[in-house]
Amino acid sequence: WEDRTVLQRPDGVPRSGRARGAARTPMSPARRLATLRWVIVAVWLALLITRIVVVSTAPGVDLSWYGIVEFGAIGLGVVVIVIAVVRTATARRRQADEALALAIRRIDPTVWLVPAAPTPELRGVIDEVRPDTHLGSRVTWAFGATEASLWELDERRATRLLVIRWSRVVHVGLEDVPERTDGSGASRRSGGSGRAGGSDGARRACAVAIHHVRPDDTPAVATFFVRTAPGSRRLLGRGPRLDRLVADLARERIVA
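The chain above was modelled as a monomer; its predicted structure follows.
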Protein backbone atom coordinates (compact mmCIF):
# COMPACT_ATOMS: atom_id res chain seq x y z
CA TRP A 1 0.00 0.00 0.00
CA GLU A 2 2.80 2.45 0.87
CA ASP A 3 4.67 1.59 -2.32
CA ARG A 4 1.63 2.47 -4.42
CA THR A 5 0.80 5.77 -2.71
CA VAL A 6 4.22 7.32 -2.13
CA LEU A 7 6.38 6.80 -5.19
CA GLN A 8 9.81 8.29 -4.62
CA ARG A 9 11.83 10.06 -7.28
CA PRO A 10 15.62 9.57 -7.34
CA ASP A 11 16.03 12.89 -5.51
CA GLY A 12 13.69 11.80 -2.73
CA VAL A 13 10.78 14.07 -3.62
CA PRO A 14 7.39 12.29 -3.51
CA ARG A 15 5.57 12.02 -6.82
CA SER A 16 2.02 11.66 -5.52
CA GLY A 17 -0.60 13.96 -7.04
CA ARG A 18 -1.44 15.48 -3.69
CA ALA A 19 2.18 16.42 -3.03
CA ARG A 20 2.54 18.02 -6.43
CA GLY A 21 -0.69 19.99 -5.94
CA ALA A 22 0.42 21.21 -2.55
CA ALA A 23 3.75 22.44 -3.89
CA ARG A 24 2.22 24.26 -6.84
CA THR A 25 0.60 27.63 -6.13
CA PRO A 26 -1.88 28.99 -8.70
CA MET A 27 -0.95 32.19 -10.48
CA SER A 28 -2.93 35.26 -9.59
CA PRO A 29 -4.79 37.12 -12.39
CA ALA A 30 -2.36 40.03 -12.15
CA ARG A 31 0.62 37.70 -12.48
CA ARG A 32 -0.92 35.92 -15.46
CA LEU A 33 -1.55 39.27 -17.11
CA ALA A 34 2.04 40.37 -16.51
CA THR A 35 3.36 37.08 -17.92
CA LEU A 36 1.16 37.37 -21.01
CA ARG A 37 2.23 40.96 -21.54
CA TRP A 38 5.92 40.11 -21.42
CA VAL A 39 5.42 37.15 -23.79
CA ILE A 40 3.76 39.46 -26.32
CA VAL A 41 6.49 42.06 -25.88
CA ALA A 42 9.10 39.33 -26.43
CA VAL A 43 7.39 38.30 -29.69
CA TRP A 44 7.29 41.91 -30.88
CA LEU A 45 10.95 42.36 -29.97
CA ALA A 46 11.88 39.18 -31.84
CA LEU A 47 10.09 40.44 -34.96
CA LEU A 48 11.84 43.80 -34.70
CA ILE A 49 15.27 42.20 -34.28
CA THR A 50 14.59 39.90 -37.24
CA ARG A 51 13.71 42.90 -39.42
CA ILE A 52 16.88 44.73 -38.37
CA VAL A 53 19.03 41.69 -39.11
CA VAL A 54 17.39 41.08 -42.50
CA VAL A 55 17.69 44.74 -43.54
CA SER A 56 21.34 44.82 -42.45
CA THR A 57 22.33 41.64 -44.26
CA ALA A 58 20.16 41.99 -47.38
CA PRO A 59 19.17 45.65 -47.95
CA GLY A 60 17.35 44.98 -51.22
CA VAL A 61 15.05 42.23 -50.03
CA ASP A 62 11.29 42.79 -50.25
CA LEU A 63 9.84 42.89 -46.71
CA SER A 64 6.27 43.84 -47.58
CA TRP A 65 4.99 40.43 -46.47
CA TYR A 66 6.99 40.77 -43.28
CA GLY A 67 5.35 44.10 -42.58
CA ILE A 68 1.95 42.41 -42.85
CA VAL A 69 3.11 39.80 -40.34
CA GLU A 70 4.31 42.53 -37.98
CA PHE A 71 1.06 44.49 -38.15
CA GLY A 72 -0.88 41.27 -37.64
CA ALA A 73 1.21 40.36 -34.61
CA ILE A 74 0.82 43.86 -33.15
CA GLY A 75 -2.94 43.86 -33.68
CA LEU A 76 -3.32 40.36 -32.25
CA GLY A 77 -1.19 41.28 -29.25
CA VAL A 78 -3.26 44.39 -28.53
CA VAL A 79 -6.50 42.40 -28.75
CA VAL A 80 -5.15 39.69 -26.45
CA ILE A 81 -3.96 42.26 -23.90
CA VAL A 82 -7.32 44.07 -23.93
CA ILE A 83 -9.19 40.80 -23.43
CA ALA A 84 -6.83 39.82 -20.63
CA VAL A 85 -7.28 43.19 -18.89
CA VAL A 86 -11.07 42.88 -19.09
CA ARG A 87 -11.02 39.32 -17.76
CA THR A 88 -8.66 40.30 -14.95
CA ALA A 89 -10.94 43.16 -13.91
CA THR A 90 -13.93 40.81 -13.98
CA ALA A 91 -12.06 38.25 -11.88
CA ARG A 92 -11.20 40.91 -9.31
CA ARG A 93 -14.81 42.04 -9.10
CA ARG A 94 -15.95 38.42 -8.75
CA GLN A 95 -13.44 37.81 -5.96
CA ALA A 96 -14.70 40.92 -4.15
CA ASP A 97 -18.31 39.77 -4.47
CA GLU A 98 -17.41 36.27 -3.28
CA ALA A 99 -15.49 37.69 -0.31
CA LEU A 100 -18.51 39.80 0.63
CA ALA A 101 -20.83 36.81 0.26
CA LEU A 102 -18.57 34.71 2.49
CA ALA A 103 -18.52 37.44 5.15
CA ILE A 104 -22.32 37.75 5.08
CA ARG A 105 -22.85 34.01 5.35
CA ARG A 106 -20.50 33.85 8.31
CA ILE A 107 -22.95 36.14 10.09
CA ASP A 108 -26.11 34.43 8.83
CA PRO A 109 -25.67 31.25 6.75
CA THR A 110 -29.42 31.03 5.99
CA VAL A 111 -29.68 34.13 3.79
CA TRP A 112 -29.81 34.06 0.01
CA LEU A 113 -27.80 36.71 -1.79
CA VAL A 114 -28.51 38.82 -4.86
CA PRO A 115 -25.71 40.80 -6.60
CA ALA A 116 -27.05 44.27 -7.23
CA ALA A 117 -26.21 47.80 -8.31
CA PRO A 118 -27.61 50.88 -6.59
CA THR A 119 -30.09 53.20 -8.25
CA PRO A 120 -29.79 56.97 -7.82
CA GLU A 121 -32.74 56.77 -5.45
CA LEU A 122 -31.02 54.16 -3.29
CA ARG A 123 -27.90 56.33 -3.20
CA GLY A 124 -30.03 59.16 -1.89
CA VAL A 125 -31.49 56.91 0.80
CA ILE A 126 -28.02 55.78 1.94
CA ASP A 127 -26.76 59.36 1.91
CA GLU A 128 -29.65 60.26 4.21
CA VAL A 129 -29.21 57.31 6.56
CA ARG A 130 -25.40 57.19 6.53
CA PRO A 131 -23.99 60.55 5.39
CA ASP A 132 -20.41 59.33 5.92
CA THR A 133 -20.80 56.45 3.45
CA HIS A 134 -20.25 56.72 -0.30
CA LEU A 135 -22.12 53.90 -2.00
CA GLY A 136 -20.10 52.07 -4.64
CA SER A 137 -21.23 50.66 -7.97
CA ARG A 138 -21.66 47.09 -6.70
CA VAL A 139 -23.66 46.01 -3.66
CA THR A 140 -25.24 42.80 -2.42
CA TRP A 141 -28.69 42.25 -0.97
CA ALA A 142 -29.11 39.53 1.65
CA PHE A 143 -32.62 38.18 2.11
CA GLY A 144 -33.30 36.22 5.26
CA ALA A 145 -36.30 34.91 7.14
CA THR A 146 -37.04 38.16 8.98
CA GLU A 147 -35.31 40.97 7.09
CA ALA A 148 -33.65 42.20 3.92
CA SER A 149 -30.29 43.91 4.29
CA LEU A 150 -28.00 45.84 1.96
CA TRP A 151 -24.27 45.11 2.15
CA GLU A 152 -21.13 46.54 0.60
CA LEU A 153 -17.47 45.56 0.75
CA ASP A 154 -15.59 48.54 2.19
CA GLU A 155 -11.83 48.02 2.24
CA ARG A 156 -12.16 44.24 2.75
CA ARG A 157 -14.79 44.77 5.42
CA ALA A 158 -18.43 43.79 5.01
CA THR A 159 -20.61 46.76 5.91
CA ARG A 160 -24.37 46.55 6.40
CA LEU A 161 -25.88 49.78 5.15
CA LEU A 162 -29.63 49.24 5.31
CA VAL A 163 -32.02 46.83 7.03
CA ILE A 164 -35.68 46.38 6.09
CA ARG A 165 -37.87 44.12 8.21
CA TRP A 166 -40.26 41.94 6.22
CA SER A 167 -43.01 42.87 8.65
CA ARG A 168 -42.75 46.48 7.47
CA VAL A 169 -42.66 45.73 3.73
CA VAL A 170 -45.82 46.80 1.92
CA HIS A 171 -45.16 45.81 -1.69
CA VAL A 172 -42.41 44.38 -3.90
CA GLY A 173 -42.46 45.06 -7.64
CA LEU A 174 -40.60 46.21 -10.72
CA GLU A 175 -40.16 49.83 -11.77
CA ASP A 176 -38.32 51.68 -14.53
CA VAL A 177 -35.88 54.10 -12.94
CA PRO A 178 -32.95 56.14 -14.31
CA GLU A 179 -29.56 54.49 -14.12
CA ARG A 180 -27.90 57.74 -13.06
CA THR A 181 -28.61 61.34 -12.27
CA ASP A 182 -26.97 64.61 -13.26
CA GLY A 183 -24.67 64.32 -10.24
CA SER A 184 -26.94 66.07 -7.75
CA GLY A 185 -28.01 62.76 -6.21
CA ALA A 186 -31.68 63.55 -6.75
CA SER A 187 -34.01 60.61 -6.90
CA ARG A 188 -36.59 59.85 -9.51
CA ARG A 189 -39.34 61.33 -7.34
CA SER A 190 -37.70 64.73 -7.06
CA GLY A 191 -37.96 65.35 -10.78
CA GLY A 192 -41.73 65.20 -11.12
CA SER A 193 -43.27 62.29 -12.98
CA GLY A 194 -39.94 60.48 -13.42
CA ARG A 195 -40.65 59.57 -17.06
CA ALA A 196 -37.87 59.08 -19.58
CA GLY A 197 -36.55 62.13 -21.32
CA GLY A 198 -36.10 64.24 -18.20
CA SER A 199 -33.78 67.17 -17.93
CA ASP A 200 -30.76 64.99 -17.13
CA GLY A 201 -31.38 62.63 -20.08
CA ALA A 202 -30.62 59.57 -17.98
CA ARG A 203 -31.18 56.15 -19.49
CA ARG A 204 -33.84 54.12 -17.73
CA ALA A 205 -33.61 50.49 -16.63
CA CYS A 206 -35.75 47.98 -14.78
CA ALA A 207 -35.21 47.83 -11.03
CA VAL A 208 -36.68 45.97 -8.09
CA ALA A 209 -38.61 48.25 -5.74
CA ILE A 210 -39.25 47.34 -2.10
CA HIS A 211 -41.93 49.64 -0.67
CA HIS A 212 -41.79 49.65 3.11
CA VAL A 213 -42.55 51.68 6.21
CA ARG A 214 -39.69 53.16 8.21
CA PRO A 215 -39.50 52.82 12.00
CA ASP A 216 -40.89 56.37 12.28
CA ASP A 217 -43.96 55.22 10.26
CA THR A 218 -43.04 57.22 7.14
CA PRO A 219 -43.32 55.49 3.73
CA ALA A 220 -40.12 54.72 1.84
CA VAL A 221 -38.93 52.73 -1.14
CA ALA A 222 -35.62 50.98 -1.80
CA THR A 223 -34.86 50.34 -5.46
CA PHE A 224 -31.94 48.44 -6.89
CA PHE A 225 -30.76 46.97 -10.16
CA VAL A 226 -29.97 43.26 -10.29
CA ARG A 227 -26.67 42.23 -11.83
CA THR A 228 -26.50 39.15 -14.03
CA ALA A 229 -23.86 37.40 -11.88
CA PRO A 230 -21.28 38.07 -9.15
CA GLY A 231 -18.47 40.18 -10.57
CA SER A 232 -20.53 41.31 -13.55
CA ARG A 233 -21.57 44.87 -14.34
CA ARG A 234 -24.38 43.87 -16.68
CA LEU A 235 -27.89 44.47 -15.39
CA LEU A 236 -30.88 42.22 -15.75
CA GLY A 237 -33.77 43.54 -17.80
CA ARG A 238 -37.41 42.61 -17.61
CA GLY A 239 -37.85 38.89 -18.03
CA PRO A 240 -38.37 35.58 -16.24
CA ARG A 241 -35.40 35.99 -13.89
CA LEU A 242 -36.56 39.32 -12.48
CA ASP A 243 -40.16 38.13 -12.32
CA ARG A 244 -39.06 35.05 -10.36
CA LEU A 245 -36.97 37.19 -7.99
CA VAL A 246 -39.90 39.51 -7.29
CA ALA A 247 -42.17 36.51 -6.70
CA ASP A 248 -39.66 35.04 -4.25
CA LEU A 249 -39.38 38.35 -2.38
CA ALA A 250 -43.15 38.68 -2.20
CA ARG A 251 -43.32 35.14 -0.83
CA GLU A 252 -40.74 35.98 1.84
CA ARG A 253 -42.82 39.01 2.84
CA ILE A 254 -45.98 36.93 3.15
CA VAL A 255 -44.31 34.09 5.05
CA ALA A 256 -42.56 36.46 7.45
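The two ends are 57 Å apart (CA to CA).
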